[in-house]
Amino acid sequence: MKRIIGLDYLRVYTVFMVFLFHSWMHLGCSFGKLTSFVSEGAVYMTLFFMMSGYVLGLKYKELPMDGAALLTFYKKRLVSVLPLYIVCVILYPPHIR
After folding, report:
1. Exposed / middle / buried, residue 3 (Cβ in 10 Å: 0-12, 13-18, 19+)
2. Where are the transmembrane segments (predicted)?
3. Extents of the domains making up the chain
4. Which of 21, 23, 34, 72 could be stapled to 29 by a disulfide with Cβ–Cβ 3.0 to 4.6 Å?
5. Which pTM value belongs to this model?
6. DSSP secondary structure, 27-76, as one string
7. CA-based Rg of the chain, rounded to a whole angstrom?
8. Which residues 6+ apart lie within 8 Å of 40 measured at CB?
9. What CA–CA distances, in Å, run from 57 to 13, 22, 51, 72?
10. pLDDT tens track for 13-38
11. What distance in Å separates the CA atoms of residue 14 and residue 34, rounded to the nearest whole number?
12. Is 10 helix (H, G, I), strand (E, B) or coil?
């Protein structure tokens, strides 16, 4: 799959905006005139997930439709997602009130 640089830039932008949104929401950070722009975190989160799904769909579309290739695809996805998931599961419980 050929990399779409514009999507990469847009994903970086949405991740940064979600970070700012969480800073504003949980830490009370002030962004002055940009606060109304930053406060739309749900829009940035939705856009990020839509773009991620689109990129995964493009990647999936290129796979042959046999069972072995599909199994390999899901194994690679699991290996890339599971470590971060485990870290989050371990680190999150102390923050539950």
Report:
1. exposed
2. 12-35, 41-58, 78-96
3. 1-62, 63-96
4. 23
5. 0.64
6. H----GGGHHHHT-HHHHHHHHHHHHHHHHHHHHHTS-SSHHHHHHHHHH
7. 17
8. 21
9. 21, 28, 10, 15
10. 999 989 888 888 888 778 888 888 78
11. 15
12. helix
Q: Which amino acid is at 73?
A: F
Name the residue type at position 60: Y
- Can you read off the two tokens belonging to residue 18? 């979600």
81: amino acid identity, one letter: V
Residues in the chain: 97
**Sole residue written with tokens 């779409």:** 4
Determine the residue type at 36. S
Taking 80 as the threshold, does the pLDDT of residue 41 lie above it? yes
| Residue 7 and residue 50 in contact, taking contact as beta carbons nearer than 8 Å | no
